[in-house]
Amino acid sequence: MSGHAKYRDWSIKVAPVIHGDLFRACVVVTGSHAEGEPQGFVFNDLGDCATRDAAYNRGIAWAKRWVDENFRRRKPLPMKIQHREWPITSAPQRRGHLWQAWVEVERGPWEDEGQGEIFHFTDIGYYDTQKPAKQRGLEWAKAWLDSNY
pTM for the complete prediction? Predict the structure, then answer.
């Protein structure tokens, strides 16, 4: 069994470590993120296996899932809500391995206007996963509207 695998644009190296009578799955994942900068990640203690082959298989499967969860190619779906008469869209942006909260607040036209306004806010915070970044964006936009309109 080979301890090397390629997945998308990532290289996976599995190095099982003998731990008593078992083999502990450990991996090194290297590649480039969206900005093209090289990155490397080391994960150890991915579980103990009875055989070296089982540790290889576990490490490769785990690393592929990790790449899928953290470096998806598709754009995340935005979350849209209505706060009073204002539509709010929260669509976090991937920045390296973090999610930057990003929100758009839209105001429809007032009686004497031909068109409304759209406000974009990006300096709201960074989060490890997409869900709290979406929530923070929505909460921040509602608070901004409550204090300004």
Answer: 0.50
